[in-house]
Amino acid sequence: MNKIEEMYRSLGIDEEVYHYGRTILESLKERYERIDQVAEYNQLKVLKAFQKNQVSEACLLGTTGYGYNDLGRDTLERVYADIFRTEDALVRPQITCGTHALALALMSNLRPGDELLSPVGKPYDTLEEVIGIGKTKSSDGRSTGSLAEYGISYRQVDLLADGAYDYEGIRKAVNDKTRLVTIQRSKGYQTRPTLSVARIGELIRFIHDIKPNTIIMVDNCYGEFVETIEPSEVGADMIVGSLIKNPGGGLAPIGGYIAGKKKCVENAAYRLTSPGLGKEVGASLGILPAFYQGLFLSPKVTANALKTAVFAANLYERMGFSVLPDGTEERHDIIQAITLGKPELVTAFCEAVQAASPVDSHVVPEPWEMPGYDADVIMAAGAFVSGSSIELSADAPMKEPYAVYFQGGLTFEHAKYGMLKTVQYLKDRELITLPV
């Protein structure tokens, strides 16, 4: 037994689970080389943007009060715009999460009488309340503060059974009121495939051929730096995301971004702060070093998360579980779904992820009624940043088909251990048998 195996043994991983994981890893060397090549390209792309915009030590100092003439904040937004090949960007700690960023982009670029269209099916659960199709209602029967309350309607076209776009349905859905189309890149709590940037580009071209002035917004959460191009490079007018996911690199403690056409970003800035003020205000306080350094590290951190997802897919697929994406598919986001089929397996998986965490490893997660979801959700996240989805984390709605969704891993070495820990927990509870 070598020193590494001894260390795994001391952390609760037995010989059978350790060697099962090692066998899986040996089959993934070429796959990991391709992931590293994408990370290298994206690392150079980020570096180029830093150098072009002359990021300096002064950019890390921050401001207080109104935040007028905040050099670091304004430079960072130019860096984001260059990385994503957009006209402008809004990158702020005042954007509290991914859902907030999406709501801000929608509410600032839609007006009463407009219609929002989702041509890729139901959006992520928390966006339902933003649109006004969720379960929280005000006295007039609409979700409080939602688009519906402001007279903005919503239309949805589901994907076909094979995951393809329903082009005929989309053509019929686009009408005179259609002002903005939202495309969710990642699968969320669904079984559909995550959309590649190339597929998103095809859909954008189709919609613009029908109605050229339609604003196309892409929910880019979990997708940044997974490929060498972003949706903004294939026609998206706005891409939106969270800094406690990929682009924060595990260091950003809060924040979100909107990058895209100058007018769209300007509208969002006026909604975030105030008409007449827009991007001119919003102090960065002491947060800029984490924003800059997290962005700089994000291509490599994203690659670590991708390697973890591929490793887990192969671990569980070989045990007979349904996984999405499967063990050989190309990746377009960092999320891995595993259909475990029974609540006790889901609970054990999430308990193992929590036990493998650097923070709160002694805590046992339990399902609870989270705001914005239609079922109890169990979440495991022993993270340095609360709720950070780029750190190793797992969550699952406690309902059929009892699938767990996990993502992240700041380092592959930690995330590898986390995945072996899940296998160990399931084995110890006699819920699985490892393949020979």
Can you give a write-up of this model?
The protein is an alpha/beta fold and 436 residues long. Helices cover 39% and strands 13% of the residues. It contains twelve helices and twelve strands. It has helices at 3-10, 15-26, 29-52, 71-83, 98-109, 125-131, 167-173, 197-210, 262-272, 288-317, 343-355, 412-428, and strands at residues 88-92, 115-118, 153-156, 178-184, 215-219, 238-242, 256-260, 322-324, 336-339, 377-380, 393-397, 403-407. The protein has a seven-stranded mixed β-sheet with strand order 1-7-6-5-4-2-3, with helices on both faces. The chain has a five-stranded antiparallel β-sheet with strand order 8-9-12-11-10, with helices on one face. Helix 3 packs across helix 4 (71-83), helix 10 (288-317) crosses helix 12 (412-428) and helix 11 crosses helix 12. The radius of gyration is 22 Å and the shape is globular. The two termini are 20 Å apart. The mean pLDDT is 95.
List keywords for this structure.
single chain; seven-stranded mixed sheet; five-stranded antiparallel sheet; 12 strands; 436 residues; globular; 13% strand; alpha/beta; 12 helices
